[in-house]
Amino acid sequence: MDKFTTLTGVAAPLPITNVDTDMIIPKQYLKTIARTGLGKGLFSEMRFNDDGSENPDFVLNKPAYRKAQIIVAEDNFGCGSSREHAPWALLDYGIRCVISTSFADIFYNNCFQNGVLPAKVSAEDLKKLMDDASRGANATLTVDLVRQEIRGPDGGVVKFEIDEFRKHCMLNGLDSIGLTMVKEPKIKAFEEKLAARAF
């Protein structure tokens, strides 16, 4: 998993409440267990028309937001089914951070396991960030995990809270497997000791 320290990128406004995991990555994309290639399906039912053409009204199809790395969304982002494909699709598209007032628990946990930072802010601060994200080409935010703050294009600063353990894991690029591998020397020593007792 890639480390997350500081991210400066275009933020796309998604002023929708209760964005569920089926909206993020529709069910027809769940046939794979590969973590790559899912970016094409991200928000596909909103990004594309029935004939496969792009929906010009959807934010990620607008020229200013095609390279967005941050999404600013309304309350309860990632609700619905527990599919881990949702953060996989976000990451594969290039989204490293989602900012909202709240997240569904399973989606929130899945984000940390896959290198996507879900940043919780107050309703008042979300309104400011949504306004910043609505500026098109000027919609650049800086998300600083070390300082736990989001800086807007005009120099405004919004703070966000995060559990210290999750922060440590994100800063060091550690998912569950990575956390285990940190203990590899102790695991190896234990296995050697156990093997020696067997003879």
3D structure, described in words:
The protein has 199 residues and is α/β, with parallel strands linked by helices. The chain has a single domain (6-173), classed as Aconitase, domain 4 (Alpha-Beta Barrel). Helices cover 34% and strands 16% of the residues. A seven-stranded mixed sheet has the order 4-3-2-1-5-6-7. The termini are far apart. The model has no long low-confidence stretch (mean pLDDT 93).
Give the topology:
Elements: E1 6-14, H1 21-24, H2 44-47, E2 70-73, H3 85-93, E3 97-100, H4 105-114, E4 117-120, H5 123-133, E5 140-144, E6 149-151, E7 157-159, H6 164-172, H7 176-182, H8 184-197
Parallel strand pairs: 1-2, 2-3, 3-4
Antiparallel strand pairs: 1-5, 5-6, 6-7
Helix pairs in contact: 3-4
CATH domain class name: Alpha Beta
Beta strand %? 15-25%
Quick one: biggest sheet?
7 strands, mixed
Number of helices: 8
Model regions low in confidence, pLDDT < 50 over at least 5 residues: none
Please report the distance between the alpha carbons of the first and last residues: 39 Å
Could you give the order of strands across the largest sheet? 4-3-2-1-5-6-7
* SSE topology string: EHHEHEHEHEEEHHH
Category from helices, strands and their pairing: alpha/beta
Q: Any guess at the CATH architecture? A: Alpha-Beta Barrel
Please tell me what the overall shape is.
globular
> Helical proportion?
25-40%
Average of the residue pLDDT scores: 93
Calculate Rg over CA atoms: 19 Å
